[in-house]
Amino acid sequence: MNHYLWLDDYCQSFKGALKEFKEEWQATRYLIGGKMFALQGADNTGRLVITLKLNPANGSLLRQQFEDIIPGYYMNKEHWNSVYLDGAVPDEVLKDMINESYTTVLNALPKKIRTEIIK
User: Fold this and answer.
1) β-pairing verdict for 27-32 and 17-22
2) d(Cα 42, Cα 113) in Å, to the nearest integer?
């Protein structure tokens, strides 16, 4: 069960965010400038997760604080973190993680693309 019914709307609310369903992954990707900042799908047991890109130190700290935040499922474990959507991570913590992921990916885009998105 997904405890975060606001999640899809929130991910799409960011300037320039694009939502797409990746059929072969059976997962929804949220993109900015063609780069993924969030991935919502299921792990190999069927538990729903959202995977987000975070500063490695912040991701590590969050994983220590919350058992429902794990190293990125199917992703680079240093930069990506997954949150179980049937878990108990507070809404504000998850929103902060989504904000950080969006900002991290946006800031890594070439300046020209970044300028187009934020204007």
Assistant:
1) antiparallel
2) 31
pTM (2 d.p.): 0.94
**Angle formed at CA 6 by CA 90 and CA 76, multiple of 5 degrees:** 65
Q: What is the pLDDT of residues 4-55, one digit of tens each?
A: 889 999 999 999 999 999 999 899 999 999 999 999 999 989 999 999 999 9
Phi first, then psi, for residue 6 (nearest 5°) are: -80, -10
Dig out the tokens for 52 from the structure: 């987000």
**For residue 48, what are the contacts with CB-CB under 8 A and spacing of at least 6?**
2, 40, 41, 42, 84, 85, 86
Domains of the chain: 7-113 (3.90.1150.30)
Q: What angle do CA 32, 38, 42 make, to 5 degrees?
A: 145
Q: Which two tokens stand for residue 13?
A: 């609310």
Residue 38: exposed, middle, or buried by beta-carbon count in 10 A (0-12, 13-18, 19+)? buried
- 118 phi/psi in degrees, rounded to 5: -90, -5
